[in-house]
């Protein structure tokens, strides 16, 4: 696990200058790789190039230092991530290759030397890497299938830059780029910004499962999808066979993601996904495994009893951390500002705190991330079926009237996400035009609400149009919904949260459910295997129910959130009110003061709970104040 940086300039630069740029960029991401750094520079009459990395040593601790060269010394790689099938790839494709290290990084460059860009589809792992090919005068920058590892890039008059975190590019720019209209509208609709967009006009994210081909001489570049060579189809498999095959694939994935030359453990929340990952890891070793969970001193958010139950079942060395407002107050600036752009997933806060504690015991932690997307585990997948039935039988005019009545008569004063909360959210997201699921994933402000909070200079109609063109309209099936989540919320929210929060603590997190074989397997099954009537993640639970007490895997779980609604009435209140002062908002020239003031004051005064929207606003303002 590492962080990478690089740039290409058409101007001939001295080696000292190139090194200075690389060191400046690299110093911004020491937390991603505190163990080592590495540099490559080259200048000629046509262009100058620099590549650098920071390393967190996980595999091949002694000889895995980067950059790594190909056997002909004409291709150079810097790499962030882990390739889980690298040993298998060596045996099947690279017999006779003269390896100088035991690292997965050298396998990538050896495969590229043999197959070129076609080799990228062979990789099972989480990765972002750049390869400089001297024979072609080109750089190839690639990102993994799910987008577990980040990659930012920027092309301007000074050259072409890429990096693992925005802070590296921002550090070398003399002035901050302008705020992106697309980026800010996406953020206030989703509470995060998915690839290819960022909060800045001129900086982009490389989309998951794509590579960028840069011509170093002309500085022109193309972005292309990484094509899979062949995809298995399981559409005709019966349910009993599917359960058996799924169990086999999950065990295999956990095994591949537990290869490490440093201590390893698991995040154990007590939910279905983390419980099964922890169970599989425990079954694969004779030693007690290390498990870690986090709870809150607010009991309605605390579910540590579930993780204790699983820890007893698998006989792990269980570590439990209980968080309070004081823990948050000490870390919130470091956590939120580390994202480098506005990001309002409240679970980032406990994710960092548990990662920071976990790092005291292990260097790698397996997580249950991706289980909901792979197996159909979200309540919102029910809502897809409900929306189809609702809009079929309920006239649109009656729906509008009913929604108005519900909004008028029912206001929650606390962050209680029970039945009424879900009913209100469903009513708000009901859509008669076919964009229903895009409204469901818009957790912050819907279209009409963004139009109210922004001034006319900021508001952009339908910022999700880019993704609707890619995914298509009238998404109706569970597979459609899961693909939207993979491209939007998984890449833009969940994986960003885990990567930045864990790497801030210099902890590597691996997600066994984020395995392309598992994704292709579940995507080719009948949808009833994933959601059986109202039983979510049916296939996963059926595969492992024999190892847990009866109905344990069917127990409801709140999710890995944090009581930020309370915190914004308490420890964060003064800061929130400062961001809502009329002079501050008018100077920004972004928001409608009257609307924002009412939204915030209703929440702070306990009249109406606006937790998600107010926290989205709070995180933006904290980012804005720090940067502008």
TrEMBL record:
Keywords recorded for this protein, A-Z: Amino-acid biosynthesis, Asparagine biosynthesis, ATP-binding, Glutamine amidotransferase, Ligase, Nucleotide-binding
Protein's GO biological process: asparagine biosynthetic process
Keyword Calcium appears in the UniProt entry: no
InterPro entries for the chain: Asn_synth_AEB, Asn_synthase, ASN_synthetase/amidase, AsnB_N, GATase_2_dom, Ntn_hydrolases_N, Rossmann-like_a/b/a_fold
Gene Ontology cellular component list: cytosol
Active site (record annotation): 2 (for gatase activity)
SUPFAM superfamilies noted in UniProt: Adenine nucleotide alpha hydrolases-like (SSF52402), N-terminal nucleophile aminohydrolases (Ntn hydrolases) (SSF56235)
Record has Lipid biosynthesis as a keyword: no
Enzyme class: ligase
EC number: 6.3.5.4
Pathway note: Amino-acid biosynthesis; L-asparagine biosynthesis; L-asparagine from L-aspartate (L-Gln route): step 1/1
Residue sites binding ATP per the record: 294
Binding positions (L-glutamine): 104
Chemical reaction(s) catalysed: L-aspartate + L-glutamine + ATP + H2O = L-asparagine + L-glutamate + AMP + diphosphate + H(+)
Top-level taxon of origin: Bacteria
Site note Important for beta-aspartyl-AMP intermediate formation, residues: 369
Limits of the Glutamine amidotransferase type-2 domain: 2-217
GO molecular function: asparagine synthase (glutamine-hydrolyzing) activity; ATP binding
Family per similarity comment: Belongs to the asparagine synthetase family.
Protein name: asparagine synthase (glutamine-hydrolyzing)
Source species: Flavobacterium nackdongense
């Amino acid at each position: 696990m590492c962080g990478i940086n690089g740039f290409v300039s058409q101007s001939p630069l001295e080696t000292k200058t190139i090194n200075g740029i690389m060191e400046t960029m690299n110093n911004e991401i020491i937390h991603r790789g505190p163990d080592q750094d590495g540099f490559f520079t080259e200048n000629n009459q046509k262009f100058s190039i620099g590549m650098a990395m920071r390393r967190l040593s996980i595999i091949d601790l002694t000889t895995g230092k980067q950059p790594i060269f190909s056997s002909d010394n004409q291709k150079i790689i810097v790499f962030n991530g882990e390739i889980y099938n690298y040993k298998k790839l060596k045996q099947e494709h690279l017999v006779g290759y003269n390896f100088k290290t035991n690292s997965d990084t050298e396998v990538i460059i050896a495969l590229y030397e043999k197959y070129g860009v076609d080799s990228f589809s062979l990789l099972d792992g989480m990765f972002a890497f750049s390869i400089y090919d001297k024979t072609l005068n080109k750089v190839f920058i690639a990102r993994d299938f799910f987008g577990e590892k980040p990659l930012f890039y920027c092309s301007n008059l000074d050259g072409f830059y890429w990096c693992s975190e925005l802070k590296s590019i921002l550090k070398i720019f003399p002035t901050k780029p302008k705020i992106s209209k697309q980026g800010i509208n996406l953020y206030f609709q989703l509470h995060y910004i998915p690839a290819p967009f960022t909060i800045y006009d001129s900086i982009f994210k490389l989309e998951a499962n794509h590579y960028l081909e840069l011509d170093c001489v002309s500085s022109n570049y193309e972005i292309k999808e990484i094509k899979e060579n062949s995809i298995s189809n399981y559409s005709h498999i019966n349910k009993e066979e599917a359960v058996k095959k799924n169990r086999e694939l999950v065990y295999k994935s956990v095994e591949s993601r537990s290869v490490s030359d440093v201590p390893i453990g698991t995040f154990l929340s007590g939910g279905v996904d983390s419980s099964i990952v922890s169970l599989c890891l425990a079954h694969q070793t004779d030693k007690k495994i290390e498990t870690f969970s986090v709870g809150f001193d607010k009991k309605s958010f605390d579910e540590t009893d579930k993780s204790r139950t699983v820890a007893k079942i698998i006989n792990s060395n269980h570590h439990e951390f209980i968080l309070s407002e004081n823990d948050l107050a000490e870390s919130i600036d470091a956590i939120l500002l580390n994202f480098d752009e506005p990001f309002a997933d409240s679970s980032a806060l406990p994710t960092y705190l548990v990662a920071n504690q976990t790092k005291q015991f292990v260097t790698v932690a397996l997580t249950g991330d991706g289980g909901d997307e792979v197996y159909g585990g979200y309540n919102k997948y029910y809502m897809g079926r409900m929306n189809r039935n609702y809009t079929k039988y309920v006239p649109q005019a009656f729906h509008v009237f009913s929604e108005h009545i519900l909004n008028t008569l029912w206001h929650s004063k606390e962050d209680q996400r029970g039945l009424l909360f879900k009913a209100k959210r469903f009513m708000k997201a009901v859509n008669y035009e076919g964009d229903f699921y895009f409204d469901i994933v818009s957790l912050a402000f819907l279209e009409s609400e963004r139009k109210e909070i922004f001034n006319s200079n900021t508001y952009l109609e339908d910022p999700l149009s880019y993704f609707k063109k890619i995914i298509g309209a009238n998404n109706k099936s569970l597979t459609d919904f899961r693909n939207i989540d993979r491209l939007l919320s998984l890449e833009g929210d969940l994986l960003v949260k885990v990567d930045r929060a864990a790497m801030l603590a210099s902890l590597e997190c691996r997600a066994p459910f984020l395995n392309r074989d598992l994704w292709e397997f579940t995507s080719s099954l009948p949808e009833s295997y994933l959601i059986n009537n109202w039983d979510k993640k049916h296939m996963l639970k059926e595969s492992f129910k024999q190892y847990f007490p009866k109905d344990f895997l069917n127990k409801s779980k709140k999710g890995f959130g944090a009581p930020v609604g309370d915190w914004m009435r308490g420890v964060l209140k003064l800061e929130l009110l400062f961001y809502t002062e009329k002079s501050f908002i008018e100077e920004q020239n972004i928001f409608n003061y009257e609307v924002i003031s009412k939204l915030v004051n209703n929440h702070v005064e306990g009249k109406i709970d606006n937790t998600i929207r107010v926290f989205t606003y709070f995180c933006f303002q904290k980012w804005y104040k720090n940067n502008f």
